[in-house]
Specification:
Blueprint (H helix, E strand, L loop, with lengths): L8 H5 L2 H8 L2 H18 L7 E5 L8 H4 L4 E6 L2 H14 L5 E5 L16 E7 L8 H10 L1 E12 L1 H11 L3 H7 L4 E4 L4 E4 L3 H10 L2 E9 L9 H4 L2 H14 L11 E8 L2
Parallel strand pairs: 1-2, 1-4, 2-3, 4-5
Antiparallel strand pairs: 5-9, 6-7, 8-9
Organism: Salinispora arenicola
Protein name: S-adenosylmethionine-dependent methyltransferase
Keywords: Methyltransferase, S-adenosyl-L-methionine, Transferase
Length: about 270
Amino acid sequence: MSDRPQATPEVFDRRAEAWDAWQETPWGRLRYRLVAHTVDRAVRRLSGTCRVLDAGGADGADSLRLAQRGHHVTIVDHAPALLARARARARAAGVDHLVRTVCAGVDEVPELRRTGEVGFDLVLCHNVLHYLPDTPAAVAGLATAVRPGGLISVLAPNPAMDLLAIAVRRSSPAEAFGLLDAEALFSETFEHDMLRLEAEDVAAALEKSGCTVTDRFGIRCATDLIANDELKHTPAFFADLERLELALCDREPYLRMARFWQLLATRVK
């Protein structure tokens, strides 16, 4: 996979408004609500104020809420327009004194540790790895940023749901069959190819990098199989859907079919 071109900052900056719009959809809001739930579970395993690295954190949608709880957050991203949104959101929330932004790629993360730092307590890398050309190298670099005993959370689209959603929502078994062994899938939000990464392969890369995977979560186990998107805008239906998704996110076998897989790992060496 190392010969696959990496998505450039321009890919993400030119689609920043489309990303904003996606975040406001019911399925976008559910994604962030569910990840907030799983990340909060991780933070509870740590004691006191945490140093958090949001690698490829874009506008800070996953990590700024942690700054609002008093944690120190560093957001690293190579897309200037999205980082500007993160700074604006931090100012609006009154937490800009707890937030540092760094314009750099995820591959530069190992170089960002300040002299004498022992590493971050929590590293988030959400919706990023599938845009990078070398998954094992990216995971190894992220692992170096975590202190021993610290946690790393990785999230990416689930290839299983790629296929099921096409077959069910589009009623297109032929198109789904064509995707069965495909290495990449086109992202409509960012108009760029993204790798179809299996959670097991990323888990193996984490283990090789000195981390022990402790949890796997499924983010949006049922939502993407419901073809009626208008119904998801209905408050009562959305509330029922959220309750269901929260119950399924750590429950077998449902988490295996979710739109996104999320792995939580502890760095042990």
